[in-house]
Design goal:
Largest sheet: 6 strands, mixed
Number of domains: 2
Structural class: alpha+beta
Shape: globular
Radius of gyration: 20 Å
Order of helices and strands: HEEHEEEEEHEEHEEEHEHHEEEEHEE
Strand order of the largest sheet: 10-11-12-9-1-13
Strand content: 25-35%
Number of helices: 8
CATH superfamily of the largest domain: Probable tRNA modification gtpase trme, domain 1
CATH class of the largest domain: Alpha Beta
Distance between the termini: 59 Å
Number of strands: 19
Helix content: 10-25%
CATH topology of the largest domain: Gyrase A, domain 2
CATH architecture of the largest domain: 2-Layer Sandwich
């Protein structure tokens, strides 16, 4: 896929993410299609969200975890009215490995799991929904999905929109969107994810966190009533019996964006880590914003540093949602 516009002006793109709408191609996103008569029950037994409750024309976040409850991927999945099966979007550096892992558990189920050649296009900003309506002729709300002539559009719960476009139509779709939105690169898309508190898993952060420590039960990616899935026992135990010691929070730092999984430290620590980076992007005017899973005790002292106890200080940013209180649970044995 080629871009029908020059390299993006990053300052203009970030302004559009804040005040208008941008369009960006997303090489970091890939798709997997899950089809067949047993596709729904199969995914219900593999993912943490309530796939059985996902109606046609709807989208939802989910997680895919190891038996130890550690997140392997954070897929967005949806169904389009009039079309069989489910489409799954996830980090491109995980897509093929996750497809192979899911395929191991198909056994005798009537399910086919295939990688998709579709191109990923992202639209973000407060005018994103209006932009898609004007350019593509569909009105897609958060948590909804719709078909277009050469692909699908899925609405992320935080307001961003994701287009899965046929490769031979992707350039035309981007051009149509760019007539109503500012051209951007993938960093604007990821920046909105950081600001939305959505801790997406990529290869560098696989198996580092349980869903709740990355706030995935808050953003709607976990159901505690659906039944079993890999890691469900651990996730349920954390929810009903445990006390969470870590949570995901956004931060600003006057430094280049750190790599995912870079450790955080308290300024007064003796080299003991207090958290790690999930994602980070450079800001056009200098510095970076990042999302990190950090110890709640470290947040109380407001002295977190990046990379080392004497590293650049982190300034905490607000989350757009409230976190539930973690308290000892009364359990009758």
């Amino acid at each position: 896929m080629t871009l029908p516009f020059p390299p993006a002006d990053r300052a203009a793109a970030f302004r559009a993410a804040r005040d208008g709408a941008f369009v960006a191609t997303l090489p970091g996103v890939a798709f997997v299609d899950v089809q067949g008569a047993d596709a729904g029950p199969f995914l219900q037994g593999q993912l943490s969200s309530d796939v059985a409750a996902l109606g046609a024309g709807a989208a939802q976040w989910s997680t895919y975890s190891s038996p130890k409850g550690r997140m392997l991927a954070t897929p967005l999945l949806w169904r389009v009215a009039g079309r069989e099966g489910y489409r799954v979007a996830l980090a491109a550096d995980l897509a093929e490995a996750v497809r192979k892992r899911l395929a191991m558990f198909v056994l005798r189920s009537k399910v086919t799991i295939t990688g998709s050649p579709l191109a990923a296009i992202g639209i973000g900003g407060p005018l994103a929904r209006a932009t898609v309506r004007q350019a593509l002729g569909v009105d897609v709300a958060p948590g909804a999905a719709a078909a277009i002539s050469a692909g699908d559009v899925a609405g992320l719960p935080d307001g961003r929109l994701l287009v899965a476009a046929a490769p031979d139509a992707a350039d035309a779709i981007v051009a149509a969107l760019a007539a109503h939105a500012t051209p951007a690169d993938e960093s604007a898309w990821r920046w909105l994810g950081i600001r939305a508190g959505v801790a997406e898993v990529r290869r560098a952060t696989q198996e580092l966190h349980v869903a709740q420590t990355a706030n995935w039960e808050v953003v709607g990616g976990v159901s505690f009533t659906k039944g079993c899935f890999p890691g469900q026992e651990i996730v349920a135990r954390v929810q009903h019996l445990g006390i969470l010691k870590e949570r995901a929070h956004p931060f600003h730092v006057a430094a280049p964006p750190p790599d995912a999984a870079t450790r955080l430290f308290r300024a007064t620590s003796a080299g003991e880590s207090s958290g790690s980076v999930v994602d980070a992007v450079a800001l056009p005017d200098g510095g970076s914003e990042l999302l990190a899973v950090v110890q709640l005790s470290a947040l109380e002292h407001d002295d977190l540093r990046l990379g080392a106890p004497d590293g650049p200080p982190l300034a905490r940013l607000p989350l757009p949602y409230a976190l539930p209180q973690s308290a000892p649970k009364r359990v009758k044995l």
